[in-house]
Amino acid sequence: MTTDAPRTPRPDRPRHVAIIMDGNGRWATERGRPRTYGHHRGAERVRDIVKAAPGLGIEVLTLFAFSTENWRRPEYEIKVLMGLFRRYAVREIDELDGANVRVRFIGQRERLPADLQRMMAQMEARTAGNTALTIQVALSYGSRTELVGAVRRLAGEVAAGRLAPDEIDETALSGALDTAGIDDPDLVIRTSGEYRLSNFLLWQAAYAELWFTPVLWPDFNREHLFEAIRDYQKRSRRFGAVPDDEYEE
Q1: Of these residues, 4, 48, 70, 219, which one is catalytic?
Q2: Tens digit of pLDDT for each residue in 173-211?
Q3: Is the CB of residue 191 less than 8 Å from the CB of residue 20?
Q4: pTM of the predicted model, to two decimals?
Q5: Residue boundaries of the structural domains of the chain
Q6: How many CB atoms lie within 10 A of CB 223?
Q7: So what CATH class is 16-142+184-234?
């Protein structure tokens, strides 16, 4: 895999884009195929988006691949998904590393098969020094579970006497999350026409711009990504403040 040549990031372009990749099952059903066929096509779509990201000035791409709620799906579908994750790890690692892409995972990896956990750790270790793009894969991830875990970690620090209760602030909580060390997303995209975050990066997306599209994930391509970024560029990101040119005494 080769990524598009990176360009100098512009201030009006999102540096961190997070995507809720939704609609694989519906895409397959509409074509009279099993849901698992949609997952295979959805996995292929990831390659195109990863290739396009650096050329758009994107530095971090977070992909919602499997949620904590997805464990409720039929056993066969989960088995297929785990197989897809394994195949992706084996097939893509050489190209991702060769393209200077860093890979990291967030979520409850202890719930995943042991061999997949080992593959994930190997991918993280091998690509740790890469700088062209960071791919953050949310696997067995749920934001509420992540927040509970962060609170427990901070509570443990307090109980051990290493942290005072009044030292717990937004920075401390952010540092206890799975995403510690990664800037919050500027833009969150959801495919398939649904208008919700579905327990994805709830803390981190507090000031993210949201972009929803009816396009199902297996049909989402770089042109749709361009469209989302163009829409992002039209928005005024105020973070609660009032621009000087709009202020009236």
Answers
A1: 70
A2: 999 999 999 999 999 999 999 999 999 999 999 999 999
A3: yes
A4: 0.91
A5: 16-142+184-234
A6: 9
A7: alpha beta
